[in-house]
C-alpha cells in the first residue's frame, strides 16, 4: 500500500513555529517512505477563518519548499460528505440528536457530584441517549456519537503504546455542533479516509483526539491510519505555542533558519544548506535515522 501523509492546518491565522514542526515532520515522513504528501485546509469552522488566510498558509509552505503532491482539499467544500457520514451513523443507531447546552451538561454533572474544571474534559453524561428518553420534546441542538464501552488501544510511533476509555473519559462526543457546523472529529475522519491517508503525523496536542477518531473510524467502517505525534513548541509561559496565545508568524525572510529551528524540535542535527530545497534533501535521510531509532525502541522488550 502506498504511503500517503498530510498536513491539515486550520486557516485561523498564519503558520507559526509550532505549525512548521508538524508540517515538516509530515512531509519528511512521507518522503522517507517514497510516499505522497497532501495538504488539507481545515476551514470547517468558517467564522474563525479570515478570508485569504488559506492562501497565506499555502504561500508559507511553498516558501519553505513544502509543496503538496496533489491538489489542495478544502473542508468547506465537503459538507455533503459529512452529511452522508452522519446519516450513515444515525441509520445504524450510532448517532443521536442532543438538546443539551453546556449549562445543562454542567448541571447534570454537578448532580452526579462532578464539578467541571477549566481545561478539563467535559464528559457528556448521556442525557439525550435514546435509551434514556432522547430529546423529551426539546429541540435538537447537536448530534453526538454513541460511544461504545471499552478501552481503545493504539500505538503511536513516537509515544509508544496508548490507551483511552473514550466512553468514561470523554463520553458521547459531538459530530455536528449546535451552530450547524461540522465537528472536527467527524470532518477529519471522513477526509482522512477520502484522501487515503495511511500515516498521520501531527502535533502532540492532538494525541488525545486519536482514540475518539479510532472509535469513529470503526463506527463508519473506515481504515485506521498509523499515528505519530511530534513534540510541541512551547511559549515563554510553558504553554503550547499557538495562534490563540499570540504566536508570531513564521519569519520567511529566512526560510532555511525556520526549517532549522523546526528540525531541532524534531531531533534533526544541524544541516548546512543555502536553500530550502537543499536543506530538505539533507533532512530526509536524517529523519529516516530518527524513525529507525524509534522503531528499534518500540520493538525492544
TrEMBL record:
Keywords: Aminoacyl-tRNA synthetase, ATP-binding, Ligase, Metal-binding, Nucleotide-binding, Protein biosynthesis, Zinc. Residues 3-247 form the Glutamyl/glutaminyl-tRNA synthetase class Ib catalytic domain. This is Glutamyl-Q tRNA(Asp) synthetase. Zn(2+) binds at residues 98, 100, 124, 128. Gene3D superfamilies: HUPs (3.40.50.620). The gene is gluQ. A motif ('KMSKS' region) lies at residues 240-244. Its cofactor is Zn(2+). A motif ('HIGH' region) lies at residues 9-19. NCBIfam families: PRK05710.1-2, PRK05710.1-3, PRK05710.1-4, queuosine_YadB. Binds 1 zinc ion per subunit. GO terms for molecular function: ATP binding; glutamate-tRNA ligase activity; zinc ion binding. GO terms for biological process: glutamyl-tRNA aminoacylation; tRNA modification. ATP binds at residue 243.
Amino acid at each position: 500500500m502506498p504511503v500517503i501523509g498530510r498536513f491539515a492546518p486550520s486557516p485561523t491565522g498564519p503558520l507559526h513555529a509550532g505549525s512548521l514542526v508538524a508540517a515538516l515532520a509530515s512531509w519528511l515522513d512521507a518522503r522517507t517512505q517514497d510516499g505522497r504528501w497532501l495538504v488539507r485546509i481545515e476551514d470547517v469552522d468558517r467564522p474563525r477563518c479570515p478570508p485569504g488566510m488559506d492562501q497565506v498558509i499555502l504561500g508559507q509552505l511553498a516558501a519553505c519548499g513544502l509543496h503538496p503532491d496533489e491538489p489542495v482539499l478544502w473542508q468547506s467544500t465537503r459538507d455533503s460528505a459529512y452529511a452522508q457520514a452522519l446519516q450513515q451513523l444515525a441509520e445504524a443507531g450510532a448517532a443521536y440528536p442532543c438538546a443539551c447546552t453546556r449549562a445543562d451538561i454542567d448541571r447534570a454533572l454537578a448532580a452526579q457530584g462532578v464539578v467541571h474544571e477549566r481545561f478539563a474534559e467535559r464528559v457528556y453524561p448521556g442525557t439525550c441517549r435514546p435509551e434514556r428518553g432522547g430529546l423529551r420534546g426539546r429541540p435538537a441542538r447537536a448530534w453526538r456519537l454513541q460511544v461504545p464501552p471499552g478501552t481503545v488501544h493504539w500505538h503511536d510511533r513516537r509515544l509508544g503504546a496508548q490507551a483511552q476509555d473514550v466512553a468514561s473519559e470523554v463520553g458521547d462526543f459531538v459530530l455536528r455542533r449546535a451552530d450547524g457546523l461540522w465537528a472536527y472529529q467527524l470532518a477529519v475522519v471522513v477526509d482522512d479516509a477520502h484522501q487515503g491517508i495511511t500515516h498521520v503525523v501531527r502535533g502532540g496536542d492532538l494525541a488525545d483526539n486519536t482514540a475518539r477518531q479510532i472509535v469513529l473510524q470503526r463506527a463508519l467502517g473506515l481504515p485506521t491510519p498509523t499515528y505519530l505525534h511530534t513534540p510541541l513548541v512551547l511559549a515563554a509561559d510553558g504553554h503550547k505555542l499557538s495562534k490563540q496565545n499570540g504566536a508570531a508568524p513564521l519569519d520567511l525572510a529566512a526560510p532555511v533558519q525556520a526549517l532549522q529551528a523546526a528540525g531541532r524540535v524534531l531531533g534533526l542535527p544541524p544541516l548546512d544548506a543555502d536553500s530550502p530545497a537543499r536543506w530538505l534533501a539533507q533532512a530526509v535521510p536524517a529523519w529516516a535515522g530518527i524513525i529507525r531509532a524509534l522503531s528499534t525502541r518500540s520493538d525492544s522488550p
